Amino acid sequence: MEHGELEEHRRKHTMNGVRSKGVKGQPQASPRMNGHVNGTASQGGGREKDESSEDEASAVNGHTRRPLHGRKESNPLAPPFIVSAPGKTIVYGEHAVVHGKAAIAAAISLRSYLLCTTLSKSKRTLCLQFPDIGLDHTWHIPDLPWTAFKHSSRRKRYYDLVTTLDQELVDAMQPHITTVSSKAKPSVQQRHQQAASAFLYLFLSLGSENSPPCTYALRSTVPVGVGLGSSASICVCISTALLLQCRALSGPHPDQMSKEAEEQLERINRWAFVGELLIHGNPSGVDNTVATNGHAVLFQRKDYRKPPAVEILRDFPELPLLLIDTGQAKSTATEVAKVGHLKTAHPEVTGLVFDAIDSITRSAHSIVTGENPGSEASITHLGELMNVNHGLLTSLGVSHPRLERLRYLVNESGVGWTKLTGAGGGGCAITLLKPGASSSSDSHLNGDGAQGSALQELERQLEAEGFAKILLKLEHLQPSGSFKSRGVGNYCLQALRNRRQASTPGTHPENKTERKVHFYSSSGGNAGLACVHAARSLGCPATVVVPLSTKPMMVERLWAAGAHGGIEGRAGWEATTVLALETRGADSLAQSLEQGELITLPGITSLATSLGATRVSERTFELASKGQASGRVRSAVLTDAEAAMGCWRFADDERTLVELACGVNVALCYGGRLEKALGRPVGREEKVVIVVCGGQNVTTSMVEGWRLECGDLDRAVTTNGHAESVPSTVTAPNGV
Fold first, then answer.
1. End-to-end Cα separation, the chain, in angstroms
2. Where is the Tryptophan synthase beta chain-like PALP domain (predicted)?
3. Is the entire prediction scored with pTM above 0.90?
């Protein structure tokens, strides 16, 4: 690439193939982000008592929609939010860690994600969706065994340390688990019911009968059943989401103290471990610890009645590791139980094996925390420890012919040292590459004509035996943390080149005056951050214009990245005519303008509740009054039926769903309402901007319901309460 190019291509292999370079135990988020929250995590999901019946209310994009008669004020629904957590690979110490010995594990960039969407209170349902494994199940919240879980003798608090399952609670939950995927084949049913058990046990422990109805949608890039901690990653997501909803977490924020963050991470980790107990029976806890904290960790749990000893290895070196999936399915619970039975039958022998594995882990820890962990001698030492570790695991009976075939191919190639990772019995293996092996593979993949190396030959052999090679384009490793660095960065680079070429005409190239470039971006998120990073790398200033609603954390990130100061609240188009639209029943501004003084409505009776304010601010009234006097502001009031019409007409014409609060704007496009509101015809050269927003929670059935409810409409529109008749030429969005 040319100097200054911002586009970065990173290569990694994973899943049914090879993952190369950089299992660094990389932090999946900054420590301030708790290592698990992706984006901004809402603390929504409060536990207000639902006093409405099913025939009284239904949801419209986060606002309560009631029948036209006897409407009541209501609170908006909590906004949806997403949490995420990484998978892991165990580098040293499998199985011995279950029996009180130490292990080293590191986070990987594959992650699980959980989207939480609050439903209307009238629904009273709990929906768990996990399309990656085909799970989709709904429970009725009042029917769940709350009496058992909230009994004073068994009730658990969010801050409790739970190290074992209460069998009576598990039994009480079973009737609600056996209905999950009851008609699926046994292997699928078992997987679905394990996931449902982990989720429902945590929900019943942390929630209440008054918990808001919600849909929990899980997606994961961590392959299931290959030893990469997929279940722990999911359990951490569930634990985080439920703790956020019960307000046991404050959520990540810039001023969060490290001690508070550590306490919250421990809280997440404890409840994630409970989920792991339901899935695996006797987990060590190392998987959920890595998924919670990110980075790499030295983990040891000597007493399951107490928290484990955890040392976070924030400076874990970037080792050249291949992560290879054998394609052989396995069960962690089965392999753990197998070793447990062996220990019962031969306690002294297995005890010595566990001690030896512990010594390997301690030796590796001393190397990776030493002065030069990336040296050739250190890598060789770590590789030899891997070989010995695998041999000891094989003696415990947890290897597999597919794993041994893989180790044979790697050993024959001479490129590195290989061991199983995770529970074994199939799943994944990791190979620590010898110094220089990884760079030769890069040249082969990049197609620069380099001769085949030992690693290239190994890759060909692996592909021939069914090990597919998958390349990941890791956009989250871009400077700004998103793919937008590519497009924005290339645009900035091209703009700078164009300006440099546009010198004074007729001037000798050596005497050309370079034109300065200042980049501007209008974005409150990743695009703005990408602009700042690109401008800074090119030596140019950048200004980002953000909405006042932008999260403080993002503003701080923009400042920290080098954004310049800008104008706040003073930018606008003076010659613009503003239509202040309200719906009848929420028209406090229109009534105030008509009466010439601020008035207060007795209540909001409009369906479009997000437009509602029983009394507008003095400043709003002052500006609107001045604008009305100058003709730059006009107030218009439409009915709820017209707002609903705007929604379904917009859905028909533009294939876009919007909420009622937006439908009142869109309604201007139809029946000459825009011209009637303006009091004059609209010229073809005029630019009309209609703000379209909302609609994330709107469904086609809701829009169709509005259409059936409202029917044909009176096409008159009122301006400040008075009907006007103005010829209309605007009848559809494309005409505006």
1. 46
2. 454-564, 571-694
3. no
